[in-house]
Design a protein that fits this description.
By secondary structure, the protein is mostly helical. Helix content is about 80%, strand content about 0%. Helix 1 runs antiparallel to helix 2 (about 30-60), helix 2 runs antiparallel to helix 3 (about 70-90) and helix 3 runs antiparallel to helix 4 (about 95-125). About 20% of the residues are buried.
């Protein structure tokens, strides 16, 4: 989870720099946009890995899913990450709505990561003696 949060932080920083450069009509460094995409796909991969680990671990330990709000929080984060990734592929100068969806989803993702971290901590407490 820590790597996903680190990826989210890096994406917010690189996204903010991309936004500032676009608003001020300055040229962006050539490496910035590819870095943003690479870290974004890394975050998608990490979230899928966490989903897989969570489902397999919970099912293996309890025999079923849905023992806490963590499942709903986790699925919400997975949905938001995929919505953000999909909307990013649609961003073009003539499609300002796609950028608005991407940015809005990423703001909602901050709430989602907070929620999944909180409920995850509650789940971890069940495993600790």
């Amino acid at each position: 989870m820590g790597f996903s949060l680190l990826a989210y932080f890096l994406l917010s920083m690189t996204g903010f720099v991309l936004f500032r450069k676009r608003q001020s009509h300055h040229l962006q460094p050539r490496w910035l946009r590819p870095l943003h995409y690479i870290v974004g796909w890394l975050m998608v991969s990490l979230v899928l890995l966490l989903l897989f680990i969570g489902i397999v671990g919970t099912f293996g330990h309890f025999g079923s899913l849905g023992h806490s709000g963590h499942l709903i929080a986790g699925l919400s984060v997975v949905f938001l990450v995929f919505l953000s990734a999909c909307s990013s592929t649609l961003i073009r100068p003539e499609r300002d709505w796609a950028r608005a969806i991407h940015v809005g989803t990423n703001i909602a993702l901050l709430v989602g990561f907070t929620w999944v971290s909180w409920t995850g901590w509650e789940v971890v407490q069940k495993y600790l003696p």
